[in-house]
Write a structure and sequence with these properties.
Chains: A mainly alpha (327), B mainly alpha (270), C alpha/beta (525)
Order of helices and strands of chain A: HHHHHHHHHHHHH
Shape of chain B: elongated
Order of helices and strands of chain B: HHHHHHHHHH
Distance between the termini of chain A: 22 Å
Structural class of chain A: mainly alpha
Oligomer: heterotrimer
Radius of gyration of chain B: 22 Å
Structural class of chain B: mainly alpha
Strand content of chain A: under 5%
Number of strands of chain A: 0
Helix content of chain A: over 70%
Largest sheet of chain A: none
Distance between the termini of chain B: 24 Å
Number of strands of chain B: 0
Shape of chain A: globular
Strand content of chain B: under 5%
Number of helices of chain B: 10
Largest interface: A-B, 49 and 41 residues
Helix content of chain B: over 70%
Radius of gyration of chain A: 24 Å
Chain lengths: 327, 270, 525
């Protein structure tokens, strides 16, 4: 019933899948930007008046409106905004009087490494823990891992961060309690990010380990696992050669979703450690009513989440040959 | 395993009870400040000590439980109220444009983490507990929609749905008569999970000042205020954190236990 | 000389006995059949030999393979034997292969895991074994994934994996049960050829007496964890010494006593029905290809008649059934029931829908597990309005199908598979339809239960003047209970006629092929 020659169709299938995902990526970005634009620039009525507060005179409001280009119609402003962003022009911060793009670039130099550091830590902890628990299902090691993850999930990361500071920064003074020395010295930079990364990573690792364990256990129930055992593979070989790859789909899904929690967590954690990242920037912007900065940073955060979803979709296809045909 | 379920139920119940009792009674008035008694360690008079205004931490935790539970409960309500019907609709019209639209809408909302929604709302309307509810609630909608759709899709392939169609029943009727009762358990379990996530999220939002505002008591804000005093009086930071951990732990254990114990029949039809 | 000698094998899982004192021998190169109904313990026996028992299983007794007692061997030694000395294939080819690995890698893995070859040798060997099982390299490159193959082809891959190292014993657990009858014949042929050429012993586990008859030299009959009778296949089949063996035989050839009394009026009329599905585009700008699942089918059923519709999976019989039931629209042609046009969805009047009902295959998925039996059986009242005496009618329907009125307050999980099919029949019967579509309605049942349900159906047909559309892949069942039969292939009816005539003197080559592929117990036994 099936096609005799399939070899040449595979590349085309993959390309079509990629194209479909790219289109959906673009559409998501477009709609998301529209939502953000509407909330920030349309809902408050006159953003200029809002940013300047109640005491501002008519003239200053008008001047700001002129400077921000708010006199144009909303559709024009929206198009200006997104085409500007596409060129890397995010507008001018009202409070800092500098291009938002510069501000964001500075802050990303802290936030991105922090997120990557945390993600790496979480993965490094979660994979061995999840594999161990699944392999020793129902035994003491499994119970220990599961107990630890139950507590890890329940930990608010900012509180955990405070405890870490209390122990490792104030009591033992191994790591700094906060602040960021910059990347002139990579070692010092990493040291400053270590406690924040641990605080972010542990709760995420707990979730990831649990998902990996249950995905593995579910996979181990499948018929092809029995087939593999009948071929003479040991239990361990079966997990590594057959179960792990099949279990990666749910794990990737969670990994992708966790990225958005990681972003939220990073924003909060940056406040605990007074790190000059995007999180600090956005809270300062909120207090100073700098809507232009808020708008841009939110767009960047949402862009990051959508981009990760896209990458996860690509990873699915590279893992699972069946997905390439569907698209 | 039964033991863990009971432990979970007990912890969750304790938090609920604290919240309910705080409506009519707390050991001390949480609005009255007593600077003379500030930052006292735990003692027979103040079991959990006092904060930097001399307020009783135990009393504040009870009142804070009220905020946490109320916010998380309403947020789950919003998520279920909108998400479940959307999920049922998507599954009933599986493969069609409606299904596609619901799923794309889901993806879009998923791109806005609760914190980002809270930031957007706060930037325009200013901070309040209502923001937290809205932000967490909106994020819950796609969660429930996805869970419902996923479970409903596999039910739609079963023959008892065919039998209902042969009996002349339409998709709406089938969704409520046959699909909903069979996904109810799953929704209860997901509900407990989202409830505990809601409590964590509320604490986070209040901690960064996007949630409950003074004088409303909130665990997250207690931690924010404690941060500068953590070296002087660690208990100010430790107890609110423990309250969060124990409540969330309790709810998670309850959720896991319910999943294992609620009706094994559902598993059999898969 | 024996290759495998099982002595007093007993097995319990969490203190529930599964096997009691199972003993049998398999000689080198011999084909040994293990038959029994579901739950009799035949699969557990195989897993016990492989040392792949589920958690919590405790085995005692002796399983001697080439001198070693497998039950007392350490796991390490067992992994050396599995895949190397003993190979095994399973029932479900659709799920038995790792979906994420190419077939070449999966076959080569058997050699690599036993360090029998280098990577490139293993691939060459995989190529050779796949060719041996009928998947030649030109059409089936090693780089294919399981989802690119049909069920029969996947079962061939599973066989290639199991025989890659030329084991002395191959265990096949219901290897053809999930396959179509022509595919089954091919796989059985392949197994026969391989055992002969490699002088490999085969332990064939099946519920199907006819399959065993054609394959095994020795046979053992299992019931409730015990072997009740064993010996040379011919002898066992001829003498049927044990009562249970006799019952199995009687049930598998059972023909319900029925008097065909079709009346002349036409009940259902299908004229030139066409149903197409749109497939995904092969490339971005090509038009959507279309699949004609039902391609100009015409048929009629008279009142009180039993019409059989046979065909292999994917022939379009399910699509046709859905169109007849008014669940899916057809693109051209028409379906008429008692003269009124059947349309899909809401446009079809309830009164018309009420004239036909359906019984499905899966006794487990056919009922909402949250509803009580009373409510389940009453569901078709939605079409007629609930009558005042609804609860009497439900009770009567349950009693008619051999259950008790008091069963209506129970939930479906309290019933066995056979009882559930009875409840499904009660549900179909309750609004007294003219036509009942039986969609593989007895295919999931064990032979003895199947015989009882077929008797019930025959009785009800007589007492209610029902017409049946009996859709099945199982030729022997259709032959036993229908007056006329249609043979469907690739969306078309290729042959039509009186059931006996079609089966004894098939005229279309495809029908001949189907009849020839159906395993039978030789008449002279």
């Amino acid at each position: 019933m099936l096609h005799p020659s399939l070899g040449d169709g595979k590349g085309r299938d993959m390309l079509r899948y990629l194209l479909g995902r790219l289109i959906s990526l673009g559409l998501s970005l477009l709609v998301a930007s529209l939502v953000i634009f509407t909330v920030i620039e349309i809902v408050p009525g006159d953003p200029a008046a809002y940013m300047l507060g109640l005491n501002a005179s008519e003239d200053t409001v008008a001047a700001l409106r002129e400077r921000l280009g708010l006199n144009a119609t909303p559709p024009i402003r929206y198009i200006d905004w997104i085409t500007g962003m596409a060129r890397g022009d995010f507008g001018l911060s009202y409070t800092y009087k500098v291009p938002v793009a510069d501000l964001v670039a500075q802050r990303l130099a802290v936030s991105l490494p922090l997120a990557a550091y945390a993600l790496a830590l979480a993965t490094l902890i979660a994979f061995p823990a999840g594999l161990l628990a699944a392999a020793r299902r129902g035994r003491a090691a499994d119970a220990a891992v599961m107990g630890a993850t139950q507590i890890g999930i329940a930990l608010p990361n900012f509180w955990f961060a405070m405890l870490l500071v209390l122990v490792f920064a104030l009591h033992w003074q191994i790591f700094p309690a906060g602040g960021f020395p910059g990347w002139q010295s990579v070692g010092a930079g990493l040291r400053a990010l270590t406690l924040p990364a641990i605080a972010l990573a542990l709760p995420q690792a707990a979730i990831l380990a649990r998902v990996l364990r249950s995905a593995l256990i579910e996979t181990l129930d499948h018929d092809y696992i029995r087939t593999a055992r009948a071929k003479g593979l040991t239990r361990g070989q079966t997990i590594l050669r057959h179960a792990l790859r099949n279990a990666m789909i749910p794990v990737l899904t969670i990994l992708g979703m966790q990225f958005s929690f990681l972003i939220a967590g990073a924003i909060i954690i940056e406040n605990v450690f007074s790190l000059p990242g995007l999180g600090r920037l956005i809270f300062q912007a909120i207090t100073q009513r700098d809507l232009i900065v808020v708008e841009s940073v939110v767009m960047i955060l949402v862009f990051a989440v959508i981009l990760v979803t896209f990458l996860v979709d690509l990873a699915y296809a590279s893992i699972d040959p069946r997905l390439r045909r569907r698209a | 395993m039964r033991l863990l379920l009971l432990l979970g139920a007990a912890l969750s119940l304790a938090a609920l009870l604290a919240a309910l009792v705080s409506l009519v009674w707390t050991p001390y008035d949480i609005t009255a400040m007593a600077i003379a008694e500030r930052l006292q360690p735990p003692s027979p008079a103040h079991w959990l000590g006092t904060d930097h205004f001399g307020r009783d931490i135990g009393a504040m935790l009870m009142a804070g439980a009220r905020t946490s539970i109320a916010v998380a409960l309403v947020a789950v309500g919003i998520g279920m109220g909108a998400g479940v019907p959307l999920g049922l609709l998507a599954a009933a019209s599986r493969g069609s444009l409606i299904d596609e639209a619901v799923m794309r809408l889901n993806d879009l909302v998923f791109a806005f983490p609760s914190l980002v929604i809270a930031i957007l709302i706060t930037a325009v309307f200013g901070p309040s507990a209502l923001n937290a509810i809205l932000a967490i609630g909106i994020f819950n909608i796609p969660v429930f929609a996805r869970v419902t759709r996923g479970a409903a899709l596999s039910l739609w392939t079963l023959d008892f749905i065919r039998a209902a169609e042969v009996a002349g029943k339409g998709p709406a009727r089938i969704s409520f008569e046959h699909i909903l009762p069979n996904v109810a358990n799953l929704l209860i379990v997901q509900g407990t999970i989202q409830f505990s996530l809601g409590i964590l999220a509320e604490a986070g939002l209040s901690y960064v000042g996007l949630g409950a505002q003074p004088p409303t008591a909130s665990w997250g804000r207690m931690l924010a205020e404690a941060q500068t005093m953590v070296t002087l009086a660690p208990h100010v930071a430790i107890f609110p954190g423990l309250a969060i951990v124990l409540t969330v732990l309790g709810l998670n254990l309850l959720g896991d236990g319910l999943r294992d114990h609620l009706d094994p029949r559902l598993r059999r039809i898969r | 000389m024996t290759l495998l000698s099982v002595r007093g094998l007993s097995l319990s899982i969490d203190a529930t006995p599964i096997l009691t004192g199972v003993s049998f021998d398999i000689a080198p190169g011999e084909t040994f059949g293990l038959v029994g109904e579901s739950g009799s313990g035949k699969s557990m026996t195989a897993l016990g030999v492989m040392g792949l028992l589920p958690r919590g299983a405790v085995a005692s007794g002796e399983v001697r393979f080439a001198g070693e007692n497998l039950l007392s061997l350490p796991e390490r030694r067992l992994t050396e034997l599995r895949g190397n000395e003993i190979g095994m294939i399973f029932q479900e080819p659709m799920t038995a292969l790792n979906p994420m690995q190419t077939i070449g890698d999966q076959v080569a893995e058997t050699l690599l895991i036993h360090r029998a070859a280098t990577r490139s040798e293993a691939r060459a060997a995989a190529r050779d074994r796949l060719a041996r099982v009928g998947l030649p390299g030109e059409r089936f490159p090693l780089s294919l994934y399981p989802h690119e193959l049909s069920g029969g082809q996947r079962q061939r891959v599973a066989i290639a994996m199991a025989i890659a190292l030329r084991p002395k014993l191959l265990i096949a657990d219901e290897p053809t049960t999930a396959l179509d009858v022509t595919t089954q014949a091919q796989i059985l042929d392949l197994l026969k050829r391989l055992t002969a050429e490699e002088s490999m012993a085969l332990m064939l586990i099946t519920h199907d007496l006819a399959v065993v008859a054609g394959m095994a030299t020795h046979v053992a009959v299992m019931q409730r964890g015990r072997i009740v009778e064993d010996g040379a296949t011919r002898t066992v089949f001829r003498t049927r010494a044990h009562d249970y063996t006799r019952k199995l035989f009687a049930a598998s050839g059972h023909r319900p006593a029925r008097v065909a009394r079709p009346r002349p009026e036409t009940l259902l009329e299908v004229e030139e029905a066409v149903r197409e599905y749109v497939l995904p585009r092969p490339s971005a700008f090509a038009p959507h290809p279309r699949l004609r699942a039902v391609d100009g089918v015409s048929l009629t059923i008279r009142r009180g008649e039993s019409l059989g519709l046979v065909g292999e999976s994917g022939c379009g019989k399910s699509t046709l059934t859905r169109a007849i039931l008014g669940l899916d629209p057809i693109q051209s042609g028409r379906v008429r029931l008692g003269g009124a046009e059947v349309t899909a969805g809401r446009t079809m009047p309830r009164a018309l829908r009420a004239r036909m009902q359906v019984v499905f295959q899966d006794p487990y998925g056919s009922f909402n597990p949250r509803h009580r039996v009373g409510l389940l059986v009453a569901e078709p009242f939605h079409l007629t309005g609930t009558p005042k005496d609804a609860s009497d009618r439900i009770a009567a329907a349950l009693e008619e199908v051999g259950l008790k009125a008091s069963d209506m307050t129970k939930y479906i999980h309290e019933f066995s598979g056979g009882q559930r099919q009875r409840i499904a029949i009660a549900r179909a019967l309750i609004i007294r339809p003219d036509l009942i579509v039986l969609d593989e309605a007895v295919s999931a049942l064990d032979v003895r239960v199947r015989a009882q349900v077929l008797d019930l159906l025959a009785r009800l047909q007589q007492s209610h003047g029902l017409a049946y559309l009996f859709v099945s892949h199982d030729l022997s069942v259709v032959r036993a209970v229908t007056d006329r039969v249609l043979v469907m292939r690739s969306g078309r009816i290729v042959e039509e006629g009186g059931t006996e005539a079609v089966f004894t003197r098939p005229s279309h080559p495809y029908t001949r092929q189907l009849v020839a592929a159906t395993p039978v117990i030789p008449a002279n036994w």
